[in-house]
Predict the structure.
Amino acid sequence: MTTHAVPPTPTQAVRVAPHIRRFTPASIVGVSVALVLAIVMAVLPYYVPIGSTRQLTDLFVYIILATAWNLLAGFGGMVSIGQQAYVGLGAYGIVTLVGILGLNQLLAIPLVAVACAIIAIPISYLVFRLVGGYFAVGTWVIAEIFRLVTIRFPELGAGSGFSIPPMAGVDRDMRIAIGYWAALAVAVIVVVAVVLLVRSRLGLALTAVRDEPVAAATSGVNVVTARRLVFVIAAAAAGAAGAIVAISALNVQPTAVYSVQWTAFMIFMVVIGGVGSIEGPIIGAVLFWILRELLADYGEVYLIGLGLLGVVMVLVAPGGIWGLLTGRRRVNLFPIGYRLDRRTLAG
Amino acid sequence: MQIVSAIIQGVLLGGLYALFAAGLSFMFGVMRLVNLAHGALAVLAAYGTLLLVQAGFVSPLLAMLVIVPAMAALGYVLQRFVLQRTLSESPLPSLLVTFGIAIIIANLLLVTQSANQRRLSLGALDTASIAIGDIRIGVFPILVLAFAVLALGGLSLVMRRTQFGRLVRAVSDDAPTVSLMGANPRHIYAIAAAIAFGLVAVAGVANGVQAGFNPSSGDMLLIYAFEAVIIGGLGSLWGTLLGSMILGVVQTLAATFDATLFQLAGHVVFLIFLIFLPNGLIQRRVRQ
Amino acid sequence: MLEIDDIDVYYGQLPAMRDVSMRLDDGGILAVIGANGAGKSTLLKAIAGQVPLASGRILLDGKDVSRVPAFKRARLGIALVPEGRRLFKSLTVEENLLTARASKRSGPWTLDAIYERFPLVAERRHRRAGDLSGGEQQATSIARALISNPSVLLLDEVSLGLAPAIIAQIYASIPLIREQGTSILLVEQDVQQATRASHDVHCLLQGRTSLAGRDLDLADITRAYFGA
């Protein structure tokens, strides 16, 4: 490293502080590409068959779920196998707001997300009493409680489910397109939110907590608050995903929306794509989506294959596909890192 | 009277839960590993027994003579060659791998067997009951409870009195130093896993007789085992028995009022314990 | 006989020991001295098998044990009393001693023999190891190593953190141990203590041998210790 640090002479009164750059060349490219992609995706429904639009909506839901689960596990260090609690809650939030109260579907999505976030706060106080594997199963118990309580309400359809009336005044194709755009919007918001979060001081604190919790705590990082915030945000995202699922499918079954299979999907996407990075879950979601479309006819067999792949990945390539692609270098396609601008080190 | 009967049923159900919970809490105690495949493994044992019975084994008890050692061997191999590699500071890898294994097992069963509810039968023993006053109590549940108490007692004895037990306790204190003593920690972990897997196999077969099973039964079994351990207190084998009984009683009592409250009541009681007694009933000093 | 043949040990990319050689004869005693970070503990860990060799060999009675895992080396007769004692805190003293039976070696050091020669340990036998004082822990740790009836006993800074009276007691037991046929390689920071215990001294400085020999002059040792 060659820096020319010139010690201040008596005549130099002011020294320029080193400038920290947040954008690297890779992240400038990454953000630009992401912007272009978002625009392309936004206009896509006009150019592709409606069936594809419907399928892509699923992809966005997967991206939301994977990104949120990665926030929880990869950055927050919390392995939850109960995120389906909020997927189900989100779906039934739509059932309540849209199905029963007649609220507009698009308006309901953010409301549902906020409601899930609020509910997640007291839940966090409960589950944070557990750690590690016991925390994981605890979150699953919470999901089961949500499910069991939900089906006690005949107003919500009890065990047989609820059918949501489709948006009035809109034909089927437009309805699907609207669902698509809603999903795209939420996916973009979630990814951007996670990038901003990781980029912020909180994100730095989280990385510290993940790598070395004791040192982080003694450095003044409020570990619990940081984790709670992550927990709540992940719940909101899962709730939004559940809301989109309900709006797209128009039929909500308790065993489906509260199913632990959602967690299985989230784990596979993140593990195979790459835990702890922002790019990884997105890669995992795309891969999962493709596999799902291709192997839909083969039923549970693809889940076995996915399970095997996931297990092998954890053992052999813990950084997932993104880890394999980037090797030892830390490549960030999103501006989340800190870089010292060398030119400003000179006196 | 119905209440008394329900309580007794619940206590007996606790025996079954204790059998499940024992393996889970043992593995955690020894190597800090929460095996999320625990429930799936129980179901695997049940299906294995079913297949053997269909292939000609006269009784599930006979089939167990094959299944339990086979599961124990599976436990040894899985621990030694797969799970061992996930043991580290972070619980993430072991949770992900055991969860993956659970998914693989459940779907493998779904693909090769039907999704139908199955049941193992011990002939007359299934429904045999004894009468105490007005109350009828199933013989099989009594046997299961008795076995659970024996198993827990046996495990406790092994841990306190045998060289193996000493080494297991030593390895959870300080694994590298156990190497210096001349024992291979990996081998010890693997034997502990074999024991846990053997226990869960027995539990799986018992459940197969008592309640029946299908490929996804593992989920609830894992949750019940976990709740029993938390209610009873981490690190105490007898606490696990107590916690199991409390869970069983709560579930059964609730079901006498409303059959659909069975699961929810258990979860709620678990929550209550989590809020007010997070260390469980028998508060042992849990090693960090 | 223990032969250390030109060994290198790395911690990651950092060299902890380079080109170190020494020899310990049957029933012999060798003191390895050096400042903190000189590589002394690393040497013992390498002999015990807890850290791998980057190059060189370790031979026990002519047999190359460089690749033998730690638990097997214990069964071959190499016993390490580790830095920090490393007792099993939740086990009692007696249980700690009994774990060493995993080495499957027989010899003069039975449980009774230990209790007879180490009354301090005998008195505490049913106490939880985590509740013992420093000196009691050290005695127990040594006793635990002896249960395996080792041919080579490695002592890693046994005097660390102990009162002089206790240190004296511990060093007094060394001739006892050698009597039964065990050779001793001890690591010490305290030069005086080392030279009192052993005529043969090996000095390490930053991972390399700076001086080795018999009945060396104190001035020479001090120079080699600090690298003057």
